[in-house]
Amino acid sequence: MTRLASVPRSARSSFLISHLKAFAFFLASPHGLGYYWRSHYTSQIYNFHGEYRWNVFDVALLIPYFIVMIILAFYGIHRYQLVWLYYRNRRNASHSTEPVARFEESELPFVTIQLPIYNEQFVIDRLIDACCRLDYPRDRFEIQLLDDSTDETTGVARGIVARYAAGTEGLEPQPVHYLHRTNRYGYKAGALEEGLKVAKGELIAIFDADFVPPPQWLMQVIHHFAEPGIGMVQTRWTHLNRNYSFLTQVEAILLDGHFVLEHGGRSRAGVFFNFNGTAGMWRRGAIEEAGGWQHDTLTEDTDLSYRAQLKGWKFKYLQDVECPAELPIEMTAFKTQQARWAKGLIQTSKKILPTIFRSDAPFHTKLEAFYHLTANISYPLMIVLSTLLMPAMIIRSWQGPLQMILIDLPLFMASTMSVSSFYLVSQKELFPRTWYKTFLYLPFLMSLGVGLTITNTKAVLEALFGIKSAFARTPKYRVEKKGEKSQARKYRKRLGIIPWIELAIGCYFAGTVWYAFSTENYFTVPFLLLFVLGYWYTGLLSLFQGLFERRGTQGSEIHEKPYPVGI
Question: What CATH number has the domain bearing residue 242?
Fold first, then answer.
């Protein structure tokens, strides 16, 4: 800067003019960028070459192609709408320090904390210890460890509960109780319902096995129930192992988008939103009036949430109250989690949406519920789009580029660019000083969404056709820092054929990239590369982790089934 400032202004002007002339020469050169743009786009916009003629086969391919693109674009526009709702209604945000009313200390309500677990011996002590250190009067407080385990977790859990009940590690005897079931009826929903039968609390807090509630959590939440009509308060998940790997960093961004913009936008706008199954507190009366925990869907939390809100109960979301949890560190575990959520939401939509549409709720509330509960239908649509993409590209290569600019570009902006802007905004809200680093993760974040298409499509189709499956929990490994190794290999899920299908589809899209290059259709290449990267990333990572699992567990027991309960 100092050297440039010392140069006379006339010399600097000549310098800039010479470089602008050089750039203009490059654009106008026979083989420059300008020549490419004129020969492939500008001239064809005004002079359609007329070589293409419509036929029935092309129409049969392009009509479903555009229908899928338009539907995906509507869901993409909905993401923009959530961002708009978030900022437009910022004055309606709830804060832990500003409840409408407060309980007197002598009138604090009795709280039952429910901890549903299943075969999760490696994280129980961390969970129990955190709950026993919550700041709340012990005469109005109890902890239920709801254990459905079928392995050595039962012995570990009994021992931990007995130790804390007697007093340990600087703590006085704690009101913690152990409840074990052997029939596992209803999975997690059944365990919560069973615990509710003997619970003393008028308020029910729920934490899954991988969560570590901070000591102040209860006091930050409890006073919001002093407001009449509040049925549930949800707090924001944070991440114990966010920086463990590249995968966990991308997962954290995905969840941040949900908790900041989806929950934030919906709660501020006063429309229905859902309890996330953990890190939240319910009024017992709201659970009972809504019909209690039901296990006919895999997302019993969302199901109960909508039933309670249809009964008139109000929900609050406290974005400033954090509850850290463990992210899945393996691709197969992450797929299990996402597939369960995808299937459960579609099941809930089939069950709840007819009732919502018949209710007296405002139209915008019904519309938002529709978008929320049916969003995962985009995964089967992505399969259709993937199948039609290459034929559509070949057909449309014979048409002029005007259609690409007027039709494809807006659809692409609505369906794809909305994803990147959605997560950028969420990171800017949480990390105003470092949010720009998210740009580095955006291609991989979008690719990961593409890579989940196969497993989530299978889950969505099972939900649509009424195929039942067990509540497949996500394994908890108690791995928080880089370099730490998992000790819970036996809880890993069998890989199956899906990773190989993902690799094959990735190869198909690699072929579309080659075709785009060969036809000089370079502007579609970045979009196609997202598909290649997504399918290959999820497929290869699943296979590599499976190979490491087999090499590292020779001679030890490997559980092949997905294990229900947990997030």
Answer: 3.90.550.10
